[in-house]
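Quick one - first record:
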Amino acid sequence: MKTSGVAAVGLLAGCASTKAKSTKKDGSDPFQYCLNTSTIRGQNLPITEEIDIAAKAGYTGIEPWLGKLNEYKNDGGSLKDLRKRIDDHGLTIESAIGFARWIVDDDAQRAKGLEEAKLDMDLLAQLGAKRIAAPPAGARGTVDPMAAAERYRALLEIGDEIGVVPQIEMWGGNRSIGRVSTAIYIALEAGHPSACFLGDVYHTYKGGSDFDALKMLGPQALQVFHWNDYPADPPRETIGDGDRVYPGDGVAPITDIVKGFLQVGATPALSLELFNKKYWAMDPLEAAKVGIEKMKASVAPAL
């Protein structure tokens, strides 16, 4: 594995040679808004309708789940037609959600995981997607961070061949990648120029990381960020994915997070990722519309 020097220069803000330039605050909104389809997952729509809803609601990006994409493909759907649908709506796939077991210690499982990741990225490349999530799926116990870094580099190299970038993703409370610092350590030690971090408001809180830590990161690290909020109750110890709420409806320091992005010159695509059953009971277009309205309102005070 190569040294992490190249990756460190790009991932961290304020390095001597690449000191972040603060984004000018002139009231304009520099962020792109994406719909992670988990937000309307409970309505059980086909991927084609999820794409249509994202466009009708006013999003310019979408973050689909590989399960829905593979379901579409396996049912005989044309990826060429799906890409045309996305392009015709003026949407981009900034990221996508997959669960390939690239990080696990078991060699056979990991080999299968890397092959699954390769297939996932190949499908996404055909749709013009830019990135894919790389969470610690399947990891039992604690995976050694240096081993994880080597495995993440292998994943990045597969991405190089296909043209899709895997983003190291933390899951708050996960024993292998449960904190921002662990995810960034793995990205740095991977020593790959494309290494980047898929952040999340809820997971940062759930994992016990301080949001000020994000101010140490730069534009290379902060390319996509899952946008959501969390209530004061239930407490951190018992809060779960389904407790996430629309941004601005909880107690997360949203304004300070956005100011931190701008401080380091980062404008990640903000992707609304929620799993709230109350929103799943809504009309899906209405849920998506409320989502983008609240996203923009949550960002506005920092501009």
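second record:
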Amino acid sequence: MKSSVAHRTDFPLTAADRCDRCSARAMVVTVMRNGGTLLWCAHHYALNETALRAGEAVVVRDERASR
């Protein structure tokens, strides 16, 4: 979890940003209800999207469509 970016409003993702679940390039940034930030690849975000929404995570950056 990368809590240092939790308070940012601009989340420009670069090729250096990696999914917190695997080593793939991050495509989605979510901020959890408790304030923690998670970076997701498209695959892992899709697998966890329902649970993230149930946990009230907020998507602050989604670059899946821009690929």
